[in-house]
User: Fold this.
Amino acid sequence: MEPVVQCTDLWKIYHSGRVEVPALRGVNLDVAEGEFVAIMGPSGCGKSTLLYVLGGLTPPSSGRVLVDGNDLGQMGDSERTLLRRRKIGFVFQRFNLLPTLSAYGNIAIAQHIQGDGFDPHRFEVTVNLLGLKERLHHRPSELSGGEQQRVALARAVVSDPKIVLADEPTGNLDSQNSETVLTMLKDLNQELGQTLIMITHNPEAAAYAGRIVHMRDGRILEPAAAPHLGSP
Assistant:
């Protein structure tokens, strides 16, 4: 079985004047469909850059990155935008909710943007799993931080994307809300089979994942092939 995410000798180089600044240095990474992978490392190690490349937010400088069989390095901006809409859900440290919409509106709009229209069954399953049924008619300003992040999680998965990318999803939460959100991430993975890649510097958060990948200085420190991929 082919991995849903596959990076081969992936480089990302930024330019500051005439100086080249490599953020990713030959990353190799396979993620199987249905895995929950945590990518850990100190600030500046390249883990967020890797997430942005995987999510099609920035193109790779060289190497190859495939998301559900799509080669991001061969795609233009408009093609990557379409891929993000149809294949990828994002969860950020900042919740990025629309302040004028209720929780219901913030979640439902994701299905309309994806392009297949509103799916009431998927909406109900997602909302119930994330414990939001009683909070749907509240705006973000009326929700706690933990509730806002759960709305952000629901928005990311309600359209059933192939992969969800979470960038420090508990970075703005206290320990109790962090535990709640991480438990729900694990439930999304186990109950809905959602493929998750989470960026974190926190070992307690990483422990919720099925596999931990360590990064330093733009490189992955150990073999990062998915454990159940390989020759039959």
Strands lie at 5-16, 19-31, 36-40, 62-67, 70-71, 88-91, 163-167, 195-200, 211-216, 219-220. The first helix runs from residue 47 to 54.
